[in-house]
Every structure is written in structure tokens, then in C-alpha cells.
Amino acid sequence: MRISTGMIYQTGVNTIQRQTAEMLHTQQQVSTGRRIIAPSDDPIASARALELSQSKGINAQHQINQGYAKDSLGLVENKLAAVEELIIHTRTRAVEAGNGTYAPSELKSIATDVRASFQSMLALANSQNGQGEYLFSGYQADQQPYVGTIDGVSYQGDQGQRTLQVSASRLMPISNAGSDVFNAVRQDPGKFFAVPVAPNGGTGHIAQTQLTGAYTGTRYDIQWDGTNYNVTDADTGAAVVSQSGPTLTFGAVQLEMGGTPNVGDSFEVGPRANVFNMYTNMVRALENPSPTVGIQGAVAQAIDGMDRSLDQVLTVRASVGSRMVELNTLESVGSDLDIQYSQTLSRLQDVDYAEAVSNLTLQQTYLQASQQSFLRINQLSLFNYLS
User: Fold this and answer.
1) What is the pTM of this model?
2) Which of 68, 177, 184, 368 is paired with 212 by a 20 to 30 Å CA distance?
């Protein structure tokens, strides 16, 4: 074939440009530490690296969420520990009140202390985190969960639990609704609570409780109309009995009412109770002892109520603790997974420096050889020999 001077020049230039480009690519690999500069360098590895980078980013967000969850649960656990101490203190005061030698003035002093404990309990139930969100209001983080006084407290939140995605398959509850902590104090099977309910303005209370048969867990509402205590079935609304008191007998329940209720004041009987209502009944009994049965029955119910309240708080606290243990495990797994992702990405993307530097040196040699050979070939033209 005939080789023209133009072909010689064009081929030489193309060769030098190609070798320069290859050397530049290798130089970029060395300077960036990456084997893949563009997806075209290795399409399969590039696609896999993109998937792994996304997974690594999601895992990093999960690790951040785990930190947030641990902070939130730690705060809840701290508040529950304070509630536990407060319940134990109140129980101790109830035991002291049961001392038959105490004078009315001493009982009122205990009542004053229990009132202060009530306020502390209410403050704990309305605890907030650093962002001003209420811990025990369920999903309604901006809604104060408990509103009221010693005359009665009502729950304004809901039954939800706020959650965070702490792993690909785990939505971690980071809060507990107040209804599960303070409102759901459970009595032993076959027993019941009898307490005032919000809002009561009088001094009426349950001075004594007694079983007259097998209690099956029926809930009753009791309301004072100024003459009689009207008892209704809380589930069906059906009237049960209307009695003037102070002794009320219905179903398998017998109550001794104490104090002086206002018209419209309400009481409830059931297998569950609100811890705040237990405080109300205890204070009312200490401040206005029943002239017929005294305070022993109310004190006994207060002690039992504090025991059941403590059981409920310990149950919730154990749940919080188990979630914190789970978070520790997830943190360890997430850390290991992050290392695994990094190692796989390194294997796919990172350059082999020994190989790259060796290639760079070889490519420099090729380029220099091409440049020198091109110069020599240029000198072979016959025009260079014309005089």
C-alpha cells in the first residue's frame, strides 16, 4: 500500500494523543485514588458501587436515628425512674398514715406532703424534651397530656407511640403514652379500685371497700345528686341502684363513702384506675376522715394502689430498657455493616497504587518513544535532502 506523508503525520499525531489520554486517565486514577473515573471505565462495578453507596447512606441515617432514639428513650427512662421514686415515697407516707396513734393534725401534715407529691407526679407526667415536645402525650407531641388539680386530672393526649426508623426492618417506639403509664393501673383479678374522678369539687372519697361476692370486672359509675348516690353500669349505661349512703352495696361491691361531696361529683369502680385519682382519694381521706370507719380502709386502698401503680411503671420501664438494649445491638450491627459497605466499595472503586504507578511509568515511556519516533520519521522526507 502507498503511505503518504499526510498519513504519516496523522497517524503519529493520533498515536501521541491516544497515549497522552491514557496517561492522563492513569494520572487521574493516581491523584483521586479511584479506579473508576467514569462509569464507562467499568459499567458493572459502577452500578454496584452506586447501589452500595445508597445503602451505606441509608445505614448512616439509621445510625443517626439510633442516636436520637437512645436520647429519647433515655429521657423517658429517667422520668419513669423519678415516678417510681415518687410512688415509693407516697406508699411510705400511706403506711405512716395507717398508724392508729396519729392525731388529725399529723394526718393533715401527711396529706400536705401527699399533695406536694401529687404536684410532682403531675409535673413528671407533663415532662418535655429539649424540643419542647411532651413525652407522654402520644402522637400529640405539642399537646400537654395532663390538665387539672387535686380535684381531678384529665388526659388530653392519645394512645399512640412516636417511632423512628432505626434499621431497614425496625420502627422503634421512642415514647410511651401517658394512658399506658398513669391511666392503666391494673388491679389483681377479682379485685377492684374505687376512686373519685374528675372534676370533683367536694371532699367526698371512698373510705372503705369490701367484696361481698365474686367480682367479675364490671365497671361502675357513681354520681351524687345531692340526695342519693346513683350507680350505673359504665359499659351499658344501665342504672344499677340509687342509695343515700354512706354505705353502698351493688353487684359484688360494698363501699363506705366519706367526706362531703358536691352535687355532680363522680366516683368510679373498676379493675383499672388513674394514679392521680388515687392521690385524690388519699388526700381527701386524710383531710376528712370518715366518722364511722376512719382512714384505715382508704389507707389500705392507697397502699394497694401504689403497689399496682409501681408494677405498671416498672412494666413500662422494663419495656423502655429492652428497647435501649435493642438499640445497642442495632448500633453494633450498623457499625459492622458500615465497615462491610466501605470494604466492598473500596474493592470496587479504589485504585491499586502499585499497578497504577507502574502503568503511569510505562505509559510515559511509550509516549516518549512515540514522540521520538515521530521526530525521526519526519526526517525521512526526500525534501530534506534537496540542496
Assistant:
1) 0.80
2) 184
